[in-house]
Amino acid sequence: MRYEKKTRSLNFLLELLIVIVFFALACLICIPILVNANNNNKLTQIKNEGLLKLESIAEKMRVYNGKPLDEYLSGCIYTVDDQCLITDLDNDLLGDYQIIVILKTDTQNAGIFYDTQIRLVSKNDDTILIELNTQSYMELSYE
Amino acid sequence: MNNNKKTTIGFGMGTSSLLMILIVLCMTILATLSFLNVKNNTELYNEKERMIKEYYQADRDAIKIYAKIDEILYDSYINTTVTTYFTDCQNTLIDMGYLIDADVITYEVIVNDSHTLIVKLQILPYDSIKRLMIIEWKMTVDEQGNYDGTQFDT
User: What are the structural domain ranges in chain A?
Assistant: First the structure.
């Protein structure tokens, strides 16, 4: 009787050990997938919010009239000539990112082209997450 | 005779296996659902980003054409008089392949397989400050899609 009870306990212990090993294996597969999914989801959210910001600036730059960028775009600070930096994006998700606006001007006989590159860039490693290019044209008067 | 039989509910053989199967199944389902959700969100975002970039590229092309037309009008203004300005502009633009109906110029820029940007410009009179006025600058859908989901296949 005692021998039978001892064998059952050993079998139970063995089963429990196998279960723990399988459970650990399952965790080893599932947890990285969950973590990866969470990270990707966060990145997509950041990109979504960033794209909205870039679109807003792009629409504003489509009707650009030649004013200095720091007056024309809110929160814009000049870094070098015709290159502007917006660091405060007023969004918790975009805390680690900043927007760089690069403006190129091309004057022709009848008008001026304003070519704008708008980039969402990481503050830490300067990687470009999204880039939008837009252009505007201002007619010159005859004089 | 003793009738007080003790019934014990034990954590016996097999229970832990069943419990593990249940937990692992739940974890797998949760992981799969999360993965699918993220995959769908990412695909949706990529589609949106592609569409926006294509629109801005088409918009840039349309602005370049606008500038070309403006340059033609500017040259006509310099080289002609008030009486010949309009006909000179019309003739030059027709020669260059633009579609003109009275004083309205129409051109199209292809955004992608299913969208087109249509621009309509009006040539303003000789004595006005500006040369062109935008009447229409809109994106149209060429085809409605088949709605069986295949248009989202990559």
Answer: 2-139
pLDDT at B81: 84
**pLDDT tens-digit readout, A91-110:** 888 889 999 999 999 998 88
Residues 6 or more apart whose Cβ sits within 8 Å of residue B141: B114, B115
**What gap in Å lies between CA A130 and CA B4, rounded to an integer?**
76
A82: which 2 tokens?
Answer: 């015709």
Q: Find the domain containing B53 and state its range.
A: 48-144
Going by pLDDT thresholds of 50, 70 and 90, the confidence category of residue B99 is: confident
Give this complex's ipTM: 0.83
Nearest-angstrom CA–CA distance, A14 and A12 = 5
Please, what is the Cα angle at A113 between A136 and B89, to 5 degrees?
95
Q: How many domains does chain B have?
A: 1
- Helical spans, DSSP H, in A62-113: 69-72
pLDDT value at position B1?
47
Q: Which residue has the tokens 């088409």?
A: B58
pTM: 0.82
Residue B98 lies in a domain: yes
Chain B residues with CB-CB distance to A under 8 A? Answer: 12-14, 16-17, 19-20, 23-24, 27-28, 30-31, 34-35, 37-38, 41-42, 45, 48-49, 52-53, 56-57, 59-60, 63-64, 66-67, 70-71, 73-75, 77-78, 129-132
- Report d(CA B82, CA B125) in Å as an integer: 9
